[in-house]
Amino acid sequence: MGIVSPGFQGRPRSAEPALPPGQYLTQDFPVLSAGPTPKVPLDTWEFVITAETGAEYRWSWDELMALPQETPTVDIHCVTRWSKRDTTWQGVSLDTLLDGVDTGAHYVQAHSYGGYTTNLPLDDLRGGRAWVAHTFEGAPLPAEHGGPARLLVPHLYFWKSAKWVRGIRLTPTDEPGFWETAGYHDYGDPWREQRYQGD
Protein backbone atom coordinates (compact mmCIF):
# COMPACT_ATOMS: atom_id res chain seq x y z
CA MET A 1 0.00 0.00 0.00
CA GLY A 2 1.32 3.44 -0.92
CA ILE A 3 1.93 6.21 1.56
CA VAL A 4 0.08 9.50 1.14
CA SER A 5 1.05 12.53 3.20
CA PRO A 6 -1.78 14.08 5.24
CA GLY A 7 -3.46 16.88 3.29
CA PHE A 8 -2.14 15.79 -0.10
CA GLN A 9 -4.72 16.70 -2.71
CA GLY A 10 -2.95 15.93 -6.01
CA ARG A 11 -3.01 18.31 -8.98
CA PRO A 12 -5.86 20.81 -8.95
CA ARG A 13 -8.48 20.05 -11.61
CA SER A 14 -9.74 22.74 -13.92
CA ALA A 15 -13.47 23.42 -13.73
CA GLU A 16 -13.38 23.84 -17.51
CA PRO A 17 -13.83 20.70 -19.62
CA ALA A 18 -10.86 19.86 -21.81
CA LEU A 19 -10.49 21.24 -25.32
CA PRO A 20 -9.52 19.03 -28.23
CA PRO A 21 -5.73 18.76 -28.63
CA GLY A 22 -4.02 21.79 -30.13
CA GLN A 23 -7.00 24.10 -29.64
CA TYR A 24 -7.23 27.42 -27.76
CA LEU A 25 -10.35 29.05 -26.37
CA THR A 26 -11.71 32.25 -27.93
CA GLN A 27 -14.59 34.53 -27.05
CA ASP A 28 -14.64 35.89 -30.61
CA PHE A 29 -16.16 34.25 -33.67
CA PRO A 30 -13.43 34.51 -36.33
CA VAL A 31 -14.56 34.81 -39.94
CA LEU A 32 -12.78 32.40 -42.30
CA SER A 33 -13.99 31.71 -45.84
CA ALA A 34 -12.58 30.12 -48.97
CA GLY A 35 -14.08 32.78 -51.25
CA PRO A 36 -16.44 35.76 -51.41
CA THR A 37 -19.59 35.83 -49.29
CA PRO A 38 -22.63 35.02 -51.45
CA LYS A 39 -25.81 37.02 -50.94
CA VAL A 40 -28.79 34.66 -51.05
CA PRO A 41 -32.30 36.22 -51.03
CA LEU A 42 -34.71 34.29 -48.83
CA ASP A 43 -37.36 34.20 -51.54
CA THR A 44 -35.05 32.19 -53.81
CA TRP A 45 -33.22 30.16 -51.14
CA GLU A 46 -33.90 26.44 -51.03
CA PHE A 47 -32.45 23.32 -49.48
CA VAL A 48 -32.36 20.19 -51.64
CA ILE A 49 -31.56 16.60 -50.69
CA THR A 50 -30.65 14.62 -53.81
CA ALA A 51 -30.76 10.85 -53.38
CA GLU A 52 -28.37 8.58 -55.24
CA THR A 53 -31.32 7.67 -57.51
CA GLY A 54 -31.70 11.30 -58.56
CA ALA A 55 -34.87 11.81 -56.53
CA GLU A 56 -35.01 15.30 -55.00
CA TYR A 57 -36.55 16.53 -51.75
CA ARG A 58 -36.88 20.33 -51.61
CA TRP A 59 -37.70 22.95 -49.01
CA SER A 60 -38.16 26.68 -49.52
CA TRP A 61 -37.20 29.07 -46.73
CA ASP A 62 -40.80 29.27 -45.51
CA GLU A 63 -41.11 25.48 -45.61
CA LEU A 64 -37.89 25.09 -43.63
CA MET A 65 -39.11 27.54 -41.01
CA ALA A 66 -42.40 25.65 -40.71
CA LEU A 67 -40.59 22.43 -39.72
CA PRO A 68 -39.91 21.54 -36.05
CA GLN A 69 -37.09 23.75 -34.78
CA GLU A 70 -34.34 22.80 -32.33
CA THR A 71 -32.01 25.01 -30.28
CA PRO A 72 -28.71 23.17 -29.73
CA THR A 73 -26.00 24.65 -27.51
CA VAL A 74 -22.65 23.24 -28.62
CA ASP A 75 -18.91 23.85 -28.63
CA ILE A 76 -17.36 24.47 -32.05
CA HIS A 77 -13.78 23.80 -33.12
CA CYS A 78 -11.98 25.30 -36.13
CA VAL A 79 -9.08 23.55 -37.83
CA THR A 80 -7.14 26.84 -37.47
CA ARG A 81 -7.02 25.97 -33.74
CA TRP A 82 -9.68 28.16 -32.12
CA SER A 83 -12.57 26.71 -30.14
CA LYS A 84 -15.68 28.51 -28.92
CA ARG A 85 -17.76 27.14 -26.07
CA ASP A 86 -21.51 27.01 -25.53
CA THR A 87 -22.65 28.53 -28.82
CA THR A 88 -26.43 28.55 -29.21
CA TRP A 89 -28.10 27.99 -32.56
CA GLN A 90 -31.55 27.38 -33.95
CA GLY A 91 -32.35 25.22 -36.92
CA VAL A 92 -33.83 22.05 -38.31
CA SER A 93 -32.31 18.69 -37.49
CA LEU A 94 -31.04 16.62 -40.40
CA ASP A 95 -33.01 13.78 -38.81
CA THR A 96 -36.17 15.74 -39.66
CA LEU A 97 -35.05 16.49 -43.20
CA LEU A 98 -33.90 12.93 -43.90
CA ASP A 99 -37.08 11.39 -42.52
CA GLY A 100 -38.84 9.74 -45.45
CA VAL A 101 -35.83 10.00 -47.78
CA ASP A 102 -35.33 6.56 -49.35
CA THR A 103 -31.60 5.92 -49.57
CA GLY A 104 -28.99 3.23 -49.28
CA ALA A 105 -26.17 5.78 -49.38
CA HIS A 106 -23.40 5.89 -46.79
CA TYR A 107 -21.99 9.36 -47.57
CA VAL A 108 -23.08 12.86 -48.44
CA GLN A 109 -21.50 15.76 -50.19
CA ALA A 110 -22.79 19.11 -48.93
CA HIS A 111 -23.10 21.89 -51.51
CA SER A 112 -23.17 25.62 -50.83
CA TYR A 113 -24.22 28.75 -52.63
CA GLY A 114 -20.90 30.00 -54.01
CA GLY A 115 -19.67 26.54 -54.98
CA TYR A 116 -18.13 25.23 -51.74
CA THR A 117 -18.41 21.48 -51.04
CA THR A 118 -17.50 19.15 -48.21
CA ASN A 119 -18.02 15.43 -47.61
CA LEU A 120 -19.33 13.57 -44.56
CA PRO A 121 -20.50 10.09 -43.65
CA LEU A 122 -24.30 10.05 -43.66
CA ASP A 123 -24.33 8.62 -40.13
CA ASP A 124 -22.65 11.83 -38.89
CA LEU A 125 -25.73 13.81 -39.94
CA ARG A 126 -28.09 11.55 -38.00
CA GLY A 127 -28.80 10.89 -34.34
CA GLY A 128 -29.29 14.52 -33.32
CA ARG A 129 -25.76 15.53 -34.34
CA ALA A 130 -26.37 17.90 -37.29
CA TRP A 131 -28.68 20.78 -38.24
CA VAL A 132 -29.43 23.28 -40.97
CA ALA A 133 -28.95 26.32 -38.72
CA HIS A 134 -30.37 29.77 -39.47
CA THR A 135 -30.09 31.54 -36.09
CA PHE A 136 -27.03 32.21 -33.93
CA GLU A 137 -27.30 33.51 -30.35
CA GLY A 138 -30.92 34.52 -30.90
CA ALA A 139 -30.39 36.53 -34.11
CA PRO A 140 -30.52 35.63 -37.81
CA LEU A 141 -27.23 34.03 -38.84
CA PRO A 142 -25.03 36.76 -40.40
CA ALA A 143 -23.92 36.22 -43.99
CA GLU A 144 -20.23 36.19 -42.99
CA HIS A 145 -20.94 33.20 -40.75
CA GLY A 146 -22.91 31.33 -43.40
CA GLY A 147 -26.34 32.97 -43.35
CA PRO A 148 -29.04 32.65 -44.27
CA ALA A 149 -28.35 29.02 -43.30
CA ARG A 150 -25.36 26.78 -42.76
CA LEU A 151 -24.78 23.16 -41.94
CA LEU A 152 -23.94 22.69 -38.25
CA VAL A 153 -21.98 19.52 -37.46
CA PRO A 154 -20.24 20.51 -34.20
CA HIS A 155 -18.55 17.19 -33.41
CA LEU A 156 -16.28 17.66 -36.47
CA TYR A 157 -13.90 20.50 -37.37
CA PHE A 158 -15.93 23.50 -38.45
CA TRP A 159 -15.02 23.36 -42.16
CA LYS A 160 -17.44 20.42 -42.29
CA SER A 161 -20.26 22.80 -41.21
CA ALA A 162 -20.68 24.20 -44.71
CA LYS A 163 -21.63 27.88 -44.85
CA TRP A 164 -24.46 29.06 -47.16
CA VAL A 165 -25.64 25.49 -47.51
CA ARG A 166 -28.07 24.77 -50.34
CA GLY A 167 -28.27 20.99 -50.16
CA ILE A 168 -26.71 17.59 -49.73
CA ARG A 169 -26.18 14.89 -52.32
CA LEU A 170 -26.37 11.31 -51.07
CA THR A 171 -23.61 9.11 -52.50
CA PRO A 172 -22.72 5.41 -52.24
CA THR A 173 -18.99 6.26 -52.07
CA ASP A 174 -17.00 8.99 -50.36
CA GLU A 175 -16.38 12.00 -52.65
CA PRO A 176 -13.95 14.58 -51.20
CA GLY A 177 -14.98 18.23 -51.18
CA PHE A 178 -13.12 21.54 -51.55
CA TRP A 179 -10.71 21.38 -48.60
CA GLU A 180 -10.39 17.60 -48.65
CA THR A 181 -9.03 17.68 -52.22
CA ALA A 182 -6.58 20.35 -51.03
CA GLY A 183 -5.10 18.05 -48.37
CA TYR A 184 -7.40 18.43 -45.38
CA HIS A 185 -8.44 15.27 -43.55
CA ASP A 186 -11.32 13.33 -45.06
CA TYR A 187 -13.18 13.06 -41.73
CA GLY A 188 -11.95 15.85 -39.43
CA ASP A 189 -12.43 14.68 -35.84
CA PRO A 190 -11.01 17.43 -33.57
CA TRP A 191 -10.53 15.03 -30.64
CA ARG A 192 -8.25 12.89 -32.81
CA GLU A 193 -6.64 16.04 -34.30
CA GLN A 194 -7.47 14.99 -37.85
CA ARG A 195 -6.49 18.24 -39.53
CA TYR A 196 -4.72 17.00 -42.66
CA GLN A 197 -4.49 13.82 -44.69
CA GLY A 198 -2.34 11.37 -42.80
CA ASP A 199 -3.25 12.69 -39.33
TrEMBL record:
CDD domains: arch_bact_SO_family_Moco
Listed name of the protein: Sulfoxide reductase catalytic subunit YedY
Residue span, Oxidoreductase molybdopterin-binding domain: 35-179
Superkingdom of origin organism: Bacteria
Coiled coil, from the record: none
Annotated region (Disordered), positions in chain: 1-21
Entry-linked InterPro entries: OxRdtase_Mopterin-bd_dom, OxRdtase_Mopterin-bd_sf
